[in-house]
Amino acid sequence: MKGIRKYKSSALITGASSGIGKDFAYELAKHGYSLTLIARDLRRLNEIKSDLESKYKVQVEVNSKDLSKNSDIKDLVEGLKTKDYGLVVLAAGYGTGGQFHTLDLESELRMVDVNCRSVVQICHQFIQNRKDNTPRGLVLFGSLVGFQGVPWTSTYAATKAFIQSFAEAISGEYKNKGIDVISVAPGPVKTNFADRAGMTMGNAQSPDGIAKEVLSQLGKTVTVRPGFLSKFLGYSLITLPRNLRTFVLKQIMGQMVFGGKG
Ligand SMILES: NC(=O)c1ccc[n+]([C@@H]2O[C@H](COP(=O)([O-])OP(=O)(O)OC[C@H]3O[C@@H](n4cnc5c(N)ncnc54)[C@H](OP(=O)(O)O)[C@@H]3O)[C@@H](O)[C@H]2O)c1
Fold first, then answer.
1. Interval 207-233: pLDDT, tens
2. Which keywords appear in this protein's UniProt record, sorted alphabetically (predicted)?
């Protein structure tokens, strides 16, 4: 892949212990990147590290951090001051499903911290770090649900709207200053996401290959909808007025969260 050769070949990946973040770890290792992998589950991170080091002969560091904890975010940001990554991929995130007032408030607030607060803090340090003119890349995770309000996953959809807006804005600020920013807006993907959110996804795409497509678009577009399903759902919805999108997604999310009884 020609595009990613322009970045210094080292990357920080959050949410690397499973799903889409893990796919990024494999894709970047394949291209010779040295990696720092972040998530809470150190055992899974270490398994991935051993596999990557033996398959691709790259250097992999792992670091267990809970990005809902401000102290852990601060540690990570502190570490960033002395590390010069070419790419930062912020895939850590989770969602919840249900009627808003019935959901655990602490978990909703932790979600805002993981999905938004940690992203703002890490991006701020990463961008400040850049002392030379070599290009840098920043991969953030929005979602199909981030383009309108979505009943039955209200806080999660709002966190993804935040990321979509944030990515578009900082992309505009740094576009001609050597920092490429992209927002990934997947539709349903078969990862641990649905289980943790208590959702059932009937139709979902595999996470394999998402990283390859996203990285091929980095620097060319601000939003990428990876895979056929994300494109099909995303482009069909985006033509509708915002209130109609909310209505349609309410039906879909109702199926995913309550099996249609919502
Ligand atoms: N799957 C989908 O349908 C879908 C659709 C649209 C957008 N997305 C977005 O894509 C991104 C990747 O999700 P995925 O589908 O790959 O889900 P996943 O398989 O559940 O992966 C989520 C990753 O985030 C990490 N994580 C969760 N909470 C964390 C915390 N408090 N601190 C640090 N790391 C944490 C998890 O690791 P640990 O559990 O080890 O901490 C895991 O590595 C997320 O931002 C998600 O919102 C997913």
1. 999 999 999 999 999 999 999 999 999
2. Oxidoreductase
